[in-house]
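Input record (Table S2, row 238):
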Amino acid sequence: MKKVVLDNYDDVCRAVADIYSRQLREKPHSVLGLATGGTPIGLYEELVRRYNAGEIDFSMARSFNLDEYYPISKSHPQSYDYFMRENLFDKINIARYSIPNGEADDPVAECERYDGEIAAAGGIDLMLLGIGLNGHIGFNEPSDTYPIGTYLVDLTESSLTANSRFFGPGEHQPGRALTMGIGAILSSRSIVLMICGANKAPIAKRLFEGKVYTGVPASFLLLHPDATIFLDKAAAGA
Ligand code: PGA
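Output record (2-phosphoglycolic acid complex):
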């Protein structure tokens, strides 16, 4: 695991965009893992800027997103499908993207289908992650056990509260999600985790104790041979 502390959020976004740029230059048909939430928004803005400037090309790349609320319509403004189209996919030339289907009638079958699609694509080359205040990656919430494959998860109070800021007053917030399991995440050939903002400092501190805790899902990343954790100074407590 490599730790990189940069001055501020914009610097982290640029550094991670550099990694995506290099990945696509070296392997244009890369399989990218992508995340949602507040953290990657600046990264996606930077990737769109580079795309518009002709500096990055996604035309042979495909992507898999980590998770999606369940159930949710793709047209719901808080669905991750909508988020990704708004923030990235409608603004670049990505060949193909996949997100767990929050509209599926049978969530278990959808999880199996999603894992099959990732496997058929040859696995993920470069996985982007954010981290929850509770240490979750994707929607792998703190637990004693972690499914390897994609699964339907009950969201914890911590995640529901953290994400309630995206929902309007009285707007229904799904209490469950489909999330990529720890297996697909850790099978990714390389992983980048972005940790930004002072509110993430306590979980970042826990992560850098250098121990794997079952109660801190992100700590599994410490076992990965090519994981880089980018922090801004606020999250690093510097
Ligand atoms: P955030 O979410 O980027 O909105 O803080 C990260 C996460 O929950 O993984």
